[in-house]
Amino acid sequence: MTAAQGSTLNNTSGPPAWSRRPANLATAVTGELVKRIVRGAHPSGTPLPPEPALCAAFSVSRTVVREAVKILQEKGLVQIRQGSGTIVTPPSMWNMLDELVLAATLAEDDTLAILDDLVVTRRVLESDMANVAARLADQETLDRLRALVDRMDELVDDHVTYHEHDRAFHDVIMQASGNRIARGVVRALESQVINTARYMGRSERALCVASNLGHRRIYERIAAHDPDGASEAMFTHITEAWLVRRSGPDTARLVR
To answer: Is 47 in contact with 85 (CB distance < 8 Å)?
Structure first.
């Protein structure tokens, strides 16, 4: 182990964060190493500290460390190279749909750039699903969407319940599209941020009112079986809703 590696490990390890040994030590070690890699404690292109150093830092066996490194490799955070050790990969190789990777990246992102990318991804997928839903939606789906929109008009003073119905509205459209993969991606992304203040942003009554106007336009285009109109309405709604919630100086980045 080089002096630089020893310094990095000593500066970031310390006692394990947990006070009791969890049932799955490899999972706990993996979670801590993900956080350290994402925040740059182990920079891209550099090797992780060797097994003995990791074992000592986390007070675990080599078996646990090897399992944790294997999981890191599956998440795209490291590559095991013969003769070079376990090398940290660049962020472009990380699996951003992975729960631990996304959560750690969001925690380190002070610029909201990752949330911008998340919203852009949502916008692309949901706009396409709205297009398909406008072609495939049956009367039962239209009735559900109409009921949700009408109910959200009544919930603008209760932003918690409003947002529950908001998510249900979007999910009905995603289900109507029949695209299970796109729906799965959106749901996986949102599950990571739905309870974070940085994603949810402001929640005044006026914002709920404006948001539901967007929902109603989407519903009307789907009910009219207008695929292009539904896609455009969804694109506009997601963009405008995020720009308002974001309320930051760099909002132009999202409009692209």
So the answer is: yes
Q: What angle do CA 46, 49, 51 make, to 5 degrees?
A: 140
Please give the DSSP secondary-structure letter assigned to residue 193: H
Q: How far is it, in rounded angstroms, from Cα 187 to Cα 196?
A: 15
What would the pLDDT profile of 148-186 be if each residue is shown by its tens digit? 999 999 999 998 899 999 999 999 999 999 999 999 999
Q: Distance between CA 89 and CA 69 in Å, rounded?
A: 13
Give SS3 for 102: helix
Other CB atoms closer than 10 Å to residue 65's CB: what's the count? 26
Q: Is 23 helix (H, G, I), strand (E, B) or coil?
A: coil
Buried b (16+ CB within 10 A) or exposed e, 146-160: eebbeebeebbeebe
Average pLDDT score over the chain: 88
* 55, 61 contact by CB (below 8 A): yes
Separation of alpha carbons 103 and 98, rounded Å: 8
* C-alpha to C-alpha distance for 124 and 145, rounded to whole angstroms: 21
Q: Does residue 128 contact residue 83 with C-beta atoms inside 8 Å?
A: no
Q: Please state the pTM of the whole predicted model.
A: 0.79
